[in-house]
Amino acid sequence: MLAYPQFNPVIFSIGPLHLRWYGMMYVFGIVSGWLLGRYRASKPWNKFTPKLMDDFITWAILGVVLGGRLGYCLFYNTSFYFANPMKIFAVWEGGMSFHGGCLGVLFAIWLFGRANNMSFPEVGDFISPLVPPGLFFGRIGNFINAELWGRYTDLPWAMPFPGAGGLPRHPSQLYEAALEGLALFIIVWWYSAKPRPKGCVGALFLLGYGVFRFLVEFAREPDAQLGFVALNWMSMGQILCVPMIVFGAGYIWWAYRSSSAAGR
């Protein structure tokens, strides 16, 4: 068993203001996506330009924050927020959902495409490879905060997280950082380096994230207020990943089949 590093979640304080590592991880994720996007936009094979990337980052931030917060309130703690609607705005108390943030960004992609005469698949294919680094930093933020820890295990790298009953647990945040962040970035970035049927890069991102998150959920402790929500073993995270997996795989199959038929 490994000892959990005792991180101070606050980097520094100035009076009542606190700069926290978790907030900085959002900044790192947004900046990394923006820089990678400007790099991709400098290539001649897409409609995006560095200026368009600068414009889109504002839309993306709104999609992530608003979608992530509303998604958490609706998917993970509905009854509490219906009873306490003003708490929806208390983002400093924690509570963000990737699936909600994903829906928020998808809506931002649709609006941005309409405003700039670009199709939804075109914008989605460009943006998808930029997302995994943000997921990596977000999961590192969860680890520093000692939240969203894993289930009990006797594996040698298990850790007793603060507030988790002193039991050795999977460092599931690090599993997610490695799979949803690093591995997914390598896969989607490599796949997007060559021409693909329209929409397939975005579909691969949805498929890859859905598969990785579904698998890691077997090592992650279900949310205390929900527990298992289906079949006595499926968590809410897994339920929300199923449509991502089905749509991602189905769309790729359809796109390549249609492309092949068109080629004949």
TrEMBL record:
InterPro entries the UniProt entry points to: Lgt (IPR001640)
Family: Belongs to the Lgt family.
PANTHER family: PHOSPHATIDYLGLYCEROL--PROLIPOPROTEIN DIACYLGLYCERYL TRANSFERASE (PTHR30589:SF0), PROLIPOPROTEIN DIACYLGLYCERYL TRANSFERASE (PTHR30589)
Pathway involvement of the protein, from the record: Protein modification; lipoprotein biosynthesis (diacylglyceryl transfer)
Gene assigned in the entry: lgt
Main localization category: membrane
TM annotation in the entry: 21-37, 57-76, 88-112, 174-192, 199-216, 236-256
Residues involved in a 1,2-diacyl-sn-glycero-3-phospho-(1'-sn-glycerol) binding: R139
EC number: 2.5.1.145
Job of this protein: Catalyzes the transfer of the diacylglyceryl group from phosphatidylglycerol to the sulfhydryl group of the N-terminal cysteine of a prolipoprotein, the first step in the formation of mature lipoproteins.
Subcellular location: Cell membrane
Coiled-coil features, chain-numbered ranges: none
Name of this chain's protein: Phosphatidylglycerol--prolipoprotein diacylglyceryl transferase
Membrane topology: Multi-pass membrane protein
